[in-house]
Structures are given as C-alpha cells and as structure tokens.
C-alpha cells in the first residue's frame, strides 16, 4: 500500500482541537495584530487621503478614534475564545501553540512597525523628532532603501569574488565562505555605499515624507543632509 506523498496542515492538528478552530483562532490574532500596528501607522495618512469626502472622512475619523478600543476588544475576545477551547490532556500543546503564535506576531509586526513608518517618512530616510530627548537622540535617521540595497550588493559580490577568486576558507562553520569573497564584498559594499548615497540623496521621491496614501510625486526641502558638500583632504593629513 502506497503512503501518501504529502500532508496538509490539518494532519498536524490534533483531532480533539479541530483544524477549523485552530485555523480561525490563529488568523484572528494575526488580523488583530495587523489592525493594531498598521492602524497606528496609517491612521493620519488615511485621514489626509479621504479628507475631501465628508462621509468617508467622518467614518475614518470615528474608526481611528476608537482604534485602540477595537483592537483591545478583539484581542480579549481571542483570549477568551482560546480559554473556552482548551481540552483536557491537550493543555501543553495548546499553550505551546498560543505562545508560538505570539512570538511569530512579535517578530513579524515588530519589524513592520519600524520598516513601514520609515517608508512613509521617506523611502531613503526618515527623521523622527522627539521633544523629550536631547542631543543626537532628538534626530534619528532611519535608513531603509540604502541598507537593503547594500545587503543585496554584498551578497552578490561575496558570491562573485568567492566563486572566481576564492581560495582561502573563512570559517569551518560555512566551508564555502572564503576570505577573498569576504574582502571583495566588503570593498564593493563600501564603494557602492558612497555612490548610492550620492545618487539616492538627489531624488526627492526617496527623501521626502509622504503625508497621505497617494502615489504622486513629492516636493520638499530635503535638508542639509542631502545637499552635496565638498571636503578637502588637506585637513585630514597631519602637519609636520
């Protein structure tokens, strides 16, 4: 008798719990986390987008006003639902799944809570003002597109230099990694960082913050950070 070639998710969920309950319960927490995180990020931009329509403006404004209460109620509902679905001799499994669900949500939406605001504040950069902090903490530049691009360049360069010039192993943990690939990728990434920063910094679409959910062109004063400035190397050389 031939064994089945593959399994569905339902095969890994105990019958005492039920796959439908398991599936809907996890999706409930996912939807609640998504509504809480993205609702806080997009609320003001959503209002700015629909402010021309009075009906939509009132509807969206009321939803945003009670956003926290709605999210809290949804989470409490999910928690009570979880308690009511507990089965004897399945407590360890169910609480384990409950914990894993929350850990995954923290990892996924924790990153999104930083990445998505950075995109809307400027794909290339964003500037956060905090009146309670002083000094360098009052202006924190969060880069998004530049480091993401540099990571891709670093991986490609490491593979290229390692494939064509790699001779010396880097670490035993990864035998295919070589010193030639590491050094070549490092130099390529540093050079690319200077070039891309100069190119991306000239685009207002990458540097200007977006106040609504439109996709139109942006126009703003990018600030001193993105204005080209010349430096003399003479000031860096020691004097005799």
TrEMBL record:
InterPro entries listed in its UniProt record: PC_Trfase_euk
Functional pathway: Phospholipid metabolism; CDP-diacylglycerol biosynthesis; CDP-diacylglycerol from sn-glycerol 3-phosphate: step 3/3; Lipid metabolism
A Pfam family it matches: CTP_transf_1
Topology in the lipid bilayer: Multi-pass membrane protein
Chief location: membrane
One example GO MF annotation: phosphatidate cytidylyltransferase activity
Keywords: Lipid biosynthesis, Lipid metabolism, Membrane, Nucleotidyltransferase, Phospholipid biosynthesis, Phospholipid metabolism, Transferase, Transmembrane, Transmembrane helix
GO cellular component, one term: endoplasmic reticulum membrane
Gene Ontology BP terms: CDP-diacylglycerol biosynthetic process
Transmembrane segments: 29-46, 66-86, 98-120, 140-166, 178-200
Domain of life the protein comes from: Eukaryota
Record's subcellular location: Membrane
Enzyme class: transferase
Record-listed E.C. numbers: 2.7.7.41
Family classification: Belongs to the CDS family.
Designated name of the protein: phosphatidate cytidylyltransferase
């Amino acid at each position: 008798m031939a064994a089945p070639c593959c399994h569905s998710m339902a095969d890994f969920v105990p019958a005492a719990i039920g796959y439908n309950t398991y599936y809907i319960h996890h999706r409930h927490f996912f939807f609640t986390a998504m509504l809480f995180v993205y609702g806080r990020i997009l609320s003001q931009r959503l209002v700015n987008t629909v402010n021309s329509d009075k009906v939509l403006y009132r509807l969206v404004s009321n939803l945003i006003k009670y956003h926290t209460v709605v999210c809290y109620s949804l989470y409490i509902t999910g928690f009570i639902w979880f308690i009511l679905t507990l089965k004897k001799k399945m407590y360890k499994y169910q609480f384990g799944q409950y914990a894993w669900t929350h850990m995954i949500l923290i990892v996924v939406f924790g990153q999104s809570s930083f990445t998505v605001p950075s995109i809307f504040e400027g794909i290339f950069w964003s500037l956060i003002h905090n009146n309670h902090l002083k000094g360098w903490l009052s202006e924190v530049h969060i880069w998004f597109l530049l480091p993401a691009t540099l990571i891709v360049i670093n991986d490609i360069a490491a593979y290229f230099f390692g494939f064509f010039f790699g001779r010396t192993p880097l670490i035993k943990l990864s035998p295919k990694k070589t010193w030639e690939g590491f050094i070549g990728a490092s130099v390529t990434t540093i050079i690319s960082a200077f070039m891309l920063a100069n190119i991306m910094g000239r685009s207002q679409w990458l540097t200007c913050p977006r106040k609504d959910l439109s996709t139109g062109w942006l126009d703003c004063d990018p600030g001193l950070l993105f204005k080209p400035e010349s430096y003399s190397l003479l000031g860096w050389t020691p004097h005799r």
